[in-house]
């Protein structure tokens, strides 16, 4: 009995140590790795230069949250039935956006849905939206194909997602509406993932086409609202569970020193990852690299963008059809050809400013070149007017 008791004690201790190891990260049972080597390749600062692109840097509109505008229809009613628009104002690339899916904005499943931060689309039929509320974040999967079939994108019926979630959250007050057959189908087309903490700003959800089972985002060990940090991590999200299952901690450092990297992320068709960083008062640096099993490695693109789209880049996006990388700020977007990174000419940089004064949270492109824009106040996914943006 004594030997058995010792064996049981050792087993319990072993399990405890194992569980502690697995929960070293912020998510129980998520594998966490801390990179010891530099995440940034060495470079010569004297060889770095900028492309002198046209100045479409948008100033003055978004220094405080109070300056963000609400969608015109959302001002009138939470349950919008008709589309709003984000219209082209100026720039050398013309496009406008029109409401496609109105997302939940009221409280549902004990979560506040009015603060989407980023999104990823694996196809025109599926979108994943990263929302935050206080210190919590969560990812929601939308079956866009099913929602389209129900009429969610048709003018006059566009309130169905917001109504379905609202009535479900308030089923005691609205028992009849909650039993509506269409609304039940809407809810089946929406999968809400678990809450988690320590996600950074949540503005970088991205899909790597070379890994169809996961999504990724960049986080920090800092407060959720911070946009830059020399300490960062990349977190992998399992698509089937919508829960982070891996985290790689790293310092954005080379032999030349530390760089405060931004919290945006995009992947190109080859699986290369891109980050950005603000430099000076109006410029951007770009970084290209790879995310490996237990580490990351990035190189500074030795040519920056002299004029960023605005004071704060909210998102990065990649368009496979045009092989371009997009930098998205509020009401302003610029893009560059990936094949010419490091040797860009002024004419290679395309820029678009809009007149909506909306908060732009993210942009995605499907294989046919269709563009989708995630905006706030109220939360919605909009669709571009052209496939050549």
UniProtKB/TrEMBL annotation:
<protein>
    <recommendedName>
        <fullName>Extracellular protein</fullName>
    </recommendedName>
</protein>
<feature type="signal peptide">
    <location>
        <begin position="1"/>
        <end position="30"/>
    </location>
</feature>
<keyword id="KW-0732">Signal</keyword>
């Amino acid at each position: 009995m004594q030997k058995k008791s010792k064996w049981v004690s050792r087993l319990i201790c072993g399990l405890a140590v194992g569980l502690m190891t697995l929960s070293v990260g912020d998510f129980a049972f998520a594998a966490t790795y801390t990179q010891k080597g530099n995440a940034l390749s060495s470079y010569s600062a004297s060889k770095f230069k900028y492309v002198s692109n046209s100045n479409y840097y948008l100033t003055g509109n978004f220094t405080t949250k109070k300056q963000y505008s609400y969608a015109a229809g959302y001002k009138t009613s939470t349950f919008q039935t008709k589309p709003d628009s984000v219209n082209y104002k100026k720039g050398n690339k013309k496009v406008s956006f029109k409401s496609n899916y109105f997302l939940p904005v009221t409280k549902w499943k004990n979560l506040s849905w009015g603060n989407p931060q980023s999104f990823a689309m694996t196809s025109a039929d599926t979108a994943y939206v990263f929302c935050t509320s206080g210190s919590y974040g969560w990812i929601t999967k939308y079956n866009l194909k099913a929602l389209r079939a129900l009429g969610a994108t048709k003018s006059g019926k566009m309130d169905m997602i917001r109504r379905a979630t609202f009535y479900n959250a308030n089923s005691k007050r609205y028992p009849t509406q909650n039993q509506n057959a269409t609304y039940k189908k809407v809810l089946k087309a929406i999968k809400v993932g678990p809450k988690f903490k320590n996600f950074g700003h949540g503005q970088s959800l991205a899909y790597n086409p070379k890994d169809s089972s996961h999504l990724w985002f960049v986080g920090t060990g800092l407060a959720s609202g911070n946009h830059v940090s020399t300490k960062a991590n990349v977190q992998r999200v399992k698509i089937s569970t919508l829960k982070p299952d891996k985290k790689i901690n790293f310092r954005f450092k080379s032999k030349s020193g530390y760089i405060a990297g931004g919290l945006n992320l995009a992947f190109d068709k080859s699986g290369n990852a891109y980050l950005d960083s603000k430099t000076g008062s109006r410029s951007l640096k770009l970084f290209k690299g790879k995310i490996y099993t237990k580490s990351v490695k990035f190189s500074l693109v030795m040519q920056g963008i002299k004029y960023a789209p605005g004071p704060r880049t909210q998102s990065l996006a990649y368009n496979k059809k045009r092989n371009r990388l997009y930098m998205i700020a509020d009401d302003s977007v610029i893009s560059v050809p990936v094949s010419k990174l490091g040797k860009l000419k002024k004419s290679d940089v395309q820029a678009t400013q809009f007149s909506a004064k909306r908060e732009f949270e993210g942009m995605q492109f499907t294989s046919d070149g269709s563009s989708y824009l995630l905006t706030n106040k109220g939360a919605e996914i909009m669709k571009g007017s052209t496939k050549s943006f």
